[in-house]
Design brief:
single chain; alpha+beta; 4-stranded antiparallel beta sheet; 34% helix
Length: 70
Protein backbone atom coordinates (compact mmCIF):
# COMPACT_ATOMS: atom_id res chain seq x y z
CA UNK A 1 0.00 0.00 0.00
CA UNK A 2 1.23 3.48 -0.84
CA UNK A 3 2.26 5.84 1.92
CA UNK A 4 -0.07 8.80 2.43
CA UNK A 5 1.70 12.14 1.98
CA UNK A 6 -1.23 14.49 2.67
CA UNK A 7 -4.99 14.43 3.12
CA UNK A 8 -7.37 17.37 3.28
CA UNK A 9 -10.87 18.60 2.48
CA UNK A 10 -11.45 20.95 -0.42
CA UNK A 11 -15.03 22.02 0.28
CA UNK A 12 -17.00 18.75 -0.03
CA UNK A 13 -14.14 17.01 -1.83
CA UNK A 14 -11.78 14.73 0.11
CA UNK A 15 -8.30 14.92 -1.44
CA UNK A 16 -5.68 12.29 -0.58
CA UNK A 17 -2.10 12.44 -1.85
CA UNK A 18 -0.08 9.21 -1.84
CA UNK A 19 3.32 8.09 -3.06
CA UNK A 20 3.71 6.05 -6.26
CA UNK A 21 6.38 3.61 -7.36
CA UNK A 22 8.09 6.51 -9.13
CA UNK A 23 9.75 8.67 -6.43
CA UNK A 24 9.16 11.80 -8.56
CA UNK A 25 5.40 11.30 -8.89
CA UNK A 26 2.44 11.41 -6.51
CA UNK A 27 -1.09 10.05 -6.89
CA UNK A 28 -3.97 12.46 -6.20
CA UNK A 29 -7.29 10.84 -5.24
CA UNK A 30 -10.42 13.02 -5.09
CA UNK A 31 -13.84 11.93 -3.86
CA UNK A 32 -16.94 13.91 -2.87
CA UNK A 33 -19.17 10.92 -2.15
CA UNK A 34 -20.75 10.96 -5.63
CA UNK A 35 -17.83 11.32 -8.00
CA UNK A 36 -14.33 9.86 -7.77
CA UNK A 37 -11.28 11.04 -9.67
CA UNK A 38 -7.62 10.10 -9.57
CA UNK A 39 -4.53 11.32 -11.38
CA UNK A 40 -0.78 11.59 -10.97
CA UNK A 41 1.33 14.71 -10.68
CA UNK A 42 5.03 15.34 -10.46
CA UNK A 43 6.25 15.96 -6.93
CA UNK A 44 7.55 19.35 -8.07
CA UNK A 45 4.09 20.35 -9.33
CA UNK A 46 2.45 19.33 -6.06
CA UNK A 47 4.99 21.22 -3.95
CA UNK A 48 5.00 24.39 -6.07
CA UNK A 49 1.56 24.53 -7.71
CA UNK A 50 -0.75 23.03 -5.09
CA UNK A 51 -3.07 26.05 -5.13
CA UNK A 52 -3.46 25.82 -8.91
CA UNK A 53 -4.09 22.07 -8.67
CA UNK A 54 -6.81 22.67 -6.05
CA UNK A 55 -8.49 25.26 -8.29
CA UNK A 56 -8.52 22.76 -11.17
CA UNK A 57 -10.02 20.05 -8.93
CA UNK A 58 -12.74 22.40 -7.66
CA UNK A 59 -13.57 23.56 -11.18
CA UNK A 60 -13.74 20.00 -12.52
CA UNK A 61 -16.16 18.91 -9.80
CA UNK A 62 -18.28 22.05 -10.23
CA UNK A 63 -18.47 21.40 -14.00
CA UNK A 64 -19.41 17.75 -13.40
CA UNK A 65 -22.48 18.79 -11.38
CA UNK A 66 -23.33 21.49 -13.92
CA UNK A 67 -23.26 18.89 -16.74
CA UNK A 68 -25.59 16.67 -14.69
CA UNK A 69 -28.28 19.36 -14.43
CA UNK A 70 -31.97 18.67 -15.23
Amino acid sequence: MSKEVDSYKLGNIRVTITETEDPNRLHVDCNDGNFHSGFTVRKYEYENYKRHMNQKISTAYREQYKDEGP
